[in-house]
Amino acid sequence: MAARVLPPPPLPLVLLLLLLPLSARDTVAAGEDFPRDGRVIDLDESNFEAALGVIDFLFVDFYAPWCGHCKRLAPELDEAAPMLAGLSEPIVVAKVNADKYRKLGSKYGVDGFPTLMLFIHGVPIEYTGSRKADQLVRNLKKFVAPDVSILESDSAIKNFVENAGTSFPMFLGFGVNDSLIAEYGRKYKKRAWFAVAKDFSEDVMVAYEFDKVPALVAIHPKYKEQSLFYGPFEENFLEDFVRQSLLPLVVPINTETIKMLNDDQRKVVLTILEDDSDENSTQLVKILRSAASANRDLVFGYVGIKQWDEFVETFDVSKSSQLPKLLVWDRNEEYELRD
């Protein structure tokens, strides 16, 4: 009868770790070692995956040491990192020398420097917004916020509005089923704040200028604009209101807002002025705002030659042209001048 060979007893955990390849041991050991105190941490191919495994929100700068833009970005990240670490949903800032660790850069599609990515529970989202510290913090704070916040009191509404700041529009639902808003909170998460108030006083109704429920209030704090939607909360009506309200009634055209137009399919009624900050222009913008509120199927915008002459020249308009000039623009090559 053949002798029965018994399996060897299980190895102690310590011995198992010693038998692991060095890179694997580093991954196991590194999990607890990432600082969360607001410093920008260095990552490489040996510890990147470990960082993703233990850090819920990781903002990564894939850089090259010789890159001028990267050098200018570094102090902005140093300034932003402690603010991001102090959020209710902390964000850790890290950097990877993707010129040295090219395999890591290639894995995440890095083809230029700097490339910025926010990893949310390990899933990367490329960040293309402002790189200034204060704006970067505001943008990333939005990315990690709930899709829709539930507000249970007047004070909660006040705190939500104050904490949201002025960089993004916000949509406040009153007496609205949060399941109706959830879809758009997810879809437009990067572009707006969404909240549903479950309990509120008459003072809030007066402050936000609605007199019945359900009501959805769209607010652009930066432009001091507010619009109101009473329904119907079905089919495409709700999304049309949200989509159209992502932009202010009248858009000042500049390098930032021009990007906002990319996701909007409406034609733009563009008014070209000599100087969009003078008193006459301010009065004209008020008139444009009235026109825009009556016609949400178009985007109304304005730009001053003094503020952005290179953009204005693409429409064959210059300081010698008769101003203001009005045209309808489809954001491609086509535009139509109007008297």
UniProtKB/TrEMBL annotation:
Q: Could you give a GO molecular-function term held by this entry?
A: isomerase activity
Q: Which Pfam families does the protein's record reference?
A: Thioredoxin (PF00085), Thioredoxin_6 (PF13848)
Entry keyword annotation includes Disulfide bond? yes
Report the CDD domains cross-referenced here: PDI_a_family (cd02961)
The protein's UniProt keywords, in alphabetical order, are:
Disulfide bond, Isomerase, Redox-active center, Signal
Q: What does this protein do?
A: Acts as a protein-folding catalyst that interacts with nascent polypeptides to catalyze the formation, isomerization, and reduction or oxidation of disulfide bonds. May play a role in storage protein biogenesis.
PANTHER family, alphabetized: PROTEIN DISULFIDE ISOMERASE (PTHR18929), PROTEIN DISULFIDE-ISOMERASE 5-2 (PTHR18929:SF218)
| Membership in a protein family | Belongs to the protein disulfide isomerase family.
Task: Provide the protein name.
Answer: Protein disulfide isomerase11
State the organism of origin. Answer: Zea mays
Give the taxonomic lineage as stored in the record.
Eukaryota, Viridiplantae, Streptophyta, Embryophyta, Tracheophyta
